[in-house]
Amino acid sequence: MDKRFAPEHPTPLSRTLVEYELCLSLEWLCRLRWIAGAGVILATWLARLGLGLELAVTPLTLIGVSILAYNVVFVRWLNRLTCDLSGANVSARIQARTQIAADWIAITLLIHYSGGIESLAILYFFFHIILATILLSAREAYLFAGLAIVLLGGLAGAEYRGWIPHIAVGGLLPAPLYARPLYVGSALAFFASAVIGSVYLATRTTDRLRKREAEIVALSRDLQRAYNRLHMLYESAQAVNSTLELQEVLDRLTRSTAEVLGVKACTIRLLEAGGQSLCLASSYGLRDAYFQKGCLLVDQNPLVREVLAGKVVAVDDIAGDARLQYPEAALSEGIRSMLTAPLIGHGGPLGIIRVYCDRPRCFNEDDQQYLATVASHGSIALENALAYAALRDLDATKRKFILTVTHELRSPVGVVRSLLRTLAGGYAGVLTDVQADMIARALRRTDFLQTLIDDLLDLAAGKAGLHIEEAAQPINLNQLVARVVERYIVPAEEKHLTLQLQLPDVPLHILGVAEQLDRAFNNLISNAVKYTPAGGRVLVRLQEMEMQAQCTISDTGIGIPEEAQAHLFEEFYRAPNAKAQVKEGTGLGLVITKDILTRYNCTIRVKSGLGEGTTFTVTCPLIPAEQFPKELPD
Ligand code: ATP
Ligand code: MG
Questions:
Q1: Of 166, 183, 441, 444, which one has the greatest count of Cβ atoms within 10 A?
Q2: Range of 407's domain?
């Protein structure tokens, strides 16, 4: 049971509500008492002076004054009281009973001094009877009603017997009635039946209202609890779904489930060995020693079989449950009860999620439902993570395959190329024009094949993480870019292109591997030269921009159609206009370029329009000058 949701006190809700209401009503009762006290004094003097009745003015005035006086005490007492719905309002209960008891004594005295059984003040009892039924429980209302009957009966009896004097109101009744047994008997009988009848009717109504009120409060508590859990479920789902890494998904799921349920620990076990064993995949809150027992064997564990069949199973007390495989280990870890739910994917059970509590009988139906919900959303996250891991494995396998195949192709192609070159050079005999032309064409095609193999090798090696990890070191980007541009001076001249280079005055340094960065910039500059027709211009500019090195490679070439721009970094993609104008090309250059650049936290973006030329912008983080030694390797 979640401690946060445990009942705040053991008292039944209906009783708590009565007491809370009672606590709130005490102030109102005190306010009414000011009117009652003043009313007694006023009515006495009005009856005496206005109506000329012979009354026991002094005792009656004293009763009025006493009511006001004890009310002062009650008001002071009340100021020290705080009412709340969660705690037991013991002090309020005592105050209420004391106040009602004091009032009933005052009414009895009032009745005595205003004619005993003949007094019309008897009717005032009913105010208090109604008050008692509103404020107190039905049982207490009957108790006070009985007390009223006893008080009045005792008073009438004592006066009748002459134990106490009868104080009549002179001028009100033609003859004294207190000594007539028939009158006294019937007045008491009517009083008693009216009092009991009133309490009966009033308590029936208040009981019903209180039950409703208790239901509403219980419902609103349930609602609040459900809301809290939903909120926590949402937060846990968000945490779990915000990653695709299997281990992270599992760890987040165990931690958030234990926290939300407020329990000692949570574990996830996944099915292994063809569904024969359940091995630990993540745990939260348990010591490593607990898991030394190893995997749970499905065919030896009836409990997990039940869970894997789709049921949420609670073990209320570890000590007395024969379904467990290792009860001693659990007990020595301080576990007393546990709840297990299945993790079920599309293809069947994936494993189990289990929560552990250090008290017996810890979990209720709500907890079972909650764990079932966590398990079902956890299963989805788990499946996604498993699918992601499988995809990654597949991708790695695919790239390894490409790598192996291309690697195996490389050497025969190399041999064919060198043989063709030997033939073309005439070292194997003089060639006819037709033969020379055919061999030149064959050479061009094998050159292309060689580039394709190199690109594929680069790509597969880079993405599969199989490239030999050379440590990144500070690179002088000015020198690197200048070297690449130099490589294209002759090809640019042959194509009648203007090739320009603009470098900053200070050297810009970034972290990377020179050979790889060379390849990336080479691809970009070769594209610019390749896709710019004769008479065009290619400008390579390196500059510092907000603590970054920015290199733009712009040309006045054929441009890239807008719809093609989204696909530029896809493997083997070539825009239709490029394919139409330049036959050779694999569509791998930019993929390799981006792959290399992202390795060194660089970004690449393109701006182009069909027939308007293209600008590629590469931005790399600069190494601050103070972070590298004065003499740098180039
Ligand atoms: P290779 O793999 O041999 O470099 P490629 O040049 O066709 O072949 P990428 O370098 O990856 O392949 O370029 C992909 C496509 O992007 C090109 O086919 C072309 O459509 C377009 N592209 C790249 N750079 C430019 C540019 N400077 N001007 C116009 N189109 C370009
Ligand atoms: Mg290219």
A1: 166
A2: 394-464
